[in-house]
Structure to design on (228 residues):
């Protein structure tokens, strides 16, 4: 799976959009970008994933650059409950057998009043 | 319950003691994963089951670690002769099918402290 690079930490004011970047310059054509987050003392939670088109769901939007070498997770109106570590993971969608997630150290997002 | 549950939530063990950590996946989920998360790090893969079959155990750090899922539902991660470096949060995740692309649902983890 391709390696990802994320900033160690970010701050965001409550109610503002949180934009979390991820670099994945070695991504292959069959690899998807996944985002998970981990709130303190909880297990990771799936947020969103995409291949090359921008994606949106009830939690967030995912913007993938045209060359697919980077992406941005957008939380449109951050709340205090969005304070968490956000992990960007790049992996193939289907290999048929083992399908482990390879987490890095992620971005620690602190949402403040 | 609706989610993945793990027990115990916290475990303190003396060095050399054996421990067993339990995971109850979401009912009907075929795939089950175990991860280890050291303090300040992201989770790291330990092992993967599809039903009762252990298809990948490449992440188990030593032969002191053993996992089983005998009936294809509940799973147990056993650590023998615990060492201080085993102190971590152990996370279990389940997935509905065997397909790669489906979401993994994580439990709250078991925090193990080895003294």
């Amino acid at each position: 799976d391709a390696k990802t690079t994320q900033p160690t930490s970010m701050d965001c004011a409550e109610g503002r959009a949180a934009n979390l970047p991820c670099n994945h310059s070695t991504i292959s054509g069959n690899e998807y970008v996944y985002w998970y987050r981990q709130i303190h003392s909880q297990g990771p939670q799936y947020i969103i994933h995409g291949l090359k088109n921008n994606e949106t769901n009830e939690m967030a939007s995912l913007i993938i650059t045209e060359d697919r070498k980077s992406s941005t997770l957008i939380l449109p109106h951050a709340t205090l409950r969005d304070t968490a570590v956000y992990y960007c993971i790049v992996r193939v969608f289907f290999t048929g057998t083992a399908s482990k997630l390879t987490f890095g150290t992620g971005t620690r997002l602190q949402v403040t009043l | 319950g609706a989610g993945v549950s793990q027990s115990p939530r916290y475990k303190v063990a003396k060095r050399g003691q054996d421990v067993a950590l339990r995971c109850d996946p979401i009912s009907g989920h075929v795939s089950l994963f175990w991860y280890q998360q050291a303090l300040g790090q992201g989770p790291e893969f330990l092992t993967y089951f599809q039903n009762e079959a252990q298809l990948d155990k490449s992440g188990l750090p030593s032969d002191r670690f053993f996992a089983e899922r005998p009936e294809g539902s509940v799973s147990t991660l056993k650590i023998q002769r615990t060492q201080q470096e085993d102190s971590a949060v152990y996370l279990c995740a389940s997935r509905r099918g065997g397909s790669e692309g489906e979401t993994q649902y994580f439990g709250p983890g078991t925090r193990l402290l080895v003294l």
